[in-house]
Design brief:
With about 180 residues, this protein is of the alpha/beta class. The protein is about 25% helix and about 25% strand. Strands 3-1-5-4-7 form a five-stranded mixed β-sheet, with helices on both faces. A hairpin with an 8-residue loop joins strand 4 and strand 5.
């Protein structure tokens, strides 16, 4: 099993290898170099985690002037759901079972950051006793808080605020949604 597949259990790994085998030999380039000219996108995945009162869990990064939700950038060859699970574990020190997809949002290039796909998964409800066990990485996050979305709107990037509004609505509707820059 490759290093990128550490997130798979034995059954998932067997299924993955069967699927890869069924794909056949890797495709060869008919025009050498074309694949290297295809632009790349950043992919990130975050978790919508709530407390028993329905408030959302926000973290304060040391490297940004605004709030975020737990999550981060997806590594090469890492599925977004597995990346979100890994990031939650790294950022909060908790192993929580993530639910399904709530939002996929495309965001345009802005400054030094490439355009990206932002996934939000349902992180469920975090019981108070589990929230008390949160441990933050000192070199990445300053603190965390549970808050109503509108209470912290001014501390969020506007596109994240819109994306989170859609995630909350998708969770309530039991569906997933696609948006562009936080707008359907």
């Amino acid at each position: 099993m490759t290093e990128q597949m550490h997130h798979l259990d034995a059954d998932q790994a067997a299924r993955f290898f069967q699927d890869m085998n069924a794909e056949g030999e890797p495709e060869k380039e008919f025009n050498p170099g074309i694949a290297s000219r295809i632009p790349g996108k950043t992919v990130a995945a975050g978790a919508l985690i709530q407390d028993g009162q329905g408030r959302l869990l926000f973290v304060t990064p040391i490297y940004k002037p605004y709030l975020e939700i737990p999550g981060g950038v997806v590594n090469s060859n890492e599925p977004p759901h597995a990346a979100c699970q890994r990031e939650v574990r790294e950022e909060l020190g908790l192993d929580i079972e993530l639910g399904g997809l709530l939002v996929v949002d495309w965001t345009p290039q802005h400054g030094v950051w490439r355009d990206s796909l932002q996934f939000i998964f349902d992180g469920g409800v975090l019981p108070a006793e589990q929230a008390q066990r949160i441990t933050l990485p000192y070199d990445e996050l300053k603190n965390f808080q549970f808050a109503e979305l509108d209470q912290v709107a001014k501390q969020l990037k506007p596109s994240l605020h819109r994306r989170l509004q859609q995630a909350v609505a998708a969770k309530e509707a039991g569906t997933a949604t696609y948006s562009e820059f936080g707008r359907s």
